[in-house]
TrEMBL record:
Any single biological process term in GO: cell division
Annotated GO MF terms: ATP binding; ATP hydrolysis activity; transmembrane transporter activity
PROSITE patterns: ABC_TRANSPORTER_1, ABC_TRANSPORTER_2
Family statement drawn from the similarity comment of this UniProt entry: Belongs to the ABC transporter superfamily.
Keywords, ordered alphabetically: ATP-binding, Cell cycle, Cell division, Cell membrane, Membrane, Nucleotide-binding, Transport
Protein name listed in UniProt: Cell division ATP-binding protein FtsE
Quaternary structure and partners: Homodimer. Forms a membrane-associated complex with FtsX.
Known function: Part of the ABC transporter FtsEX involved in cellular division.
Keyword Disulfide bond belongs to the record: no
Organism: Gracilibacillus oryzae
Length: 228
């Protein structure tokens, strides 16, 4: 569960990115975050995994007060949240397998467990046959599937996807959506910031719309609501 109460966030340069956010997201929900560029969508998600810390307000994730986490406890906390980005962010010199295994090696899993986990998530995203490829040898959609596999390999309770289809053509975007829906069906909360009116209006979910650092709309099975 994610809960924010009266959250304000100002960047060091004085930009007010969030201007009083209160919201509650239950475990297992699928939530789209929509709104124009600069509305605060990324900042909103970054607060959830302690990439940024709010100036004011409380953020509770899985019963932990995120703002009060000690720096040494942040890495452990972050294992409960997977993140994927528009630009994939894979390590270019590592193979697909290594990109995913890396996330487990840093937490000292046994080699046998690592192998089993990596092959399982590769199977989930349909890329078992590309384990030895490097990112440059894959299409954009395949790279995003690797990024998703990496994000879920630790079995996080929450998956944050910041414009995951922003660099992909429509067909490939739908493949990514199908994978995100499968992950959601297994109980993982999905928070997806997106500019895709087509996806939001077709696959109806909760929609949180942001403008100027505030939530202006929060609807069950909502619509995109902006012109594209
Ligand atoms: P969105 O994801 O909706 O495009 P962001 O959360 O990225 O919105 O940005 C909200 C506001 O905060 C914007 O005005 C943006 O320019 C500003 N901003 C974002 N990141 C930083 C940063 N690291 N330093 C200063 N300002 C930032
Ligand atoms: P407190 O003990 O007051 O909770 P933390 O140790 O959690 O303080 O650190 C507060 C903030 O300082 C963190 O959110 C982080 O942004 C920054 N910080 C602390 N230690 C480091 C570090 N080793 N590297 C980078 N940033 C750090």
């Amino acid at each position: 569960m994610i809960e924010m109460q009266d959250v304000f966030m100002t960047y060091p340069n004085g930009v007010v990115a969030l201007n009083g956010i209160s919201v509650k997201i239950e475990q297992g929900e699928f939530v789209y975050i929509v709104g124009h560029s600069g509305a605060g969508k990324s900042t909103f998600t970054k607060l959830m995994f302690r990439e940024e810390v709010p100036m004011k307000g409380t953020i509770t994730v899985n019963n932990k007060d995120v703002s009060k986490l000690k720096w040494k406890d942040v890495p452990y906390f972050r294992r409960s949240i997977g993140v994927v980005y528009q630009d994939f962010r894979l390590l270019p010199k590592l193979t697909v397998y290594e990109n995913i295994a890396f996330a487990l090696e840093v937490i000292e899993e046994s080699p046998k467990n690592i192998r089993a986990r990596v092959m399982k998530v590769l199977d989930q995203v349909g890329l078992k046959n590309k384990a030895r490829f490097i990112p440059d040898e894959l299409s954009g959609g395949e790279q995003q599937r690797v990024a998703i596999a990496r994000a879920i390999v630790n079995r996080p309770s929450i998956l944050i996807a910041d414009e995951p289809t922003g660099n992909l053509d429509p067909d490939t975007s739908w493949e990514i959506m199908r994978i995100l829906e499968e992950i959601n069906a297994s109980g993982t909360t999905i928070i997806m910031a997106t500019h895709s009116k087509e996806i939001v209006d077709t696959v109806r979910k909760r929609v949180i719309a942001m403008e100027d650092g505030t939530i202006v709309r929060d609807e069950h099975r909502g619509e995109y609501g902006y012109e594209v």
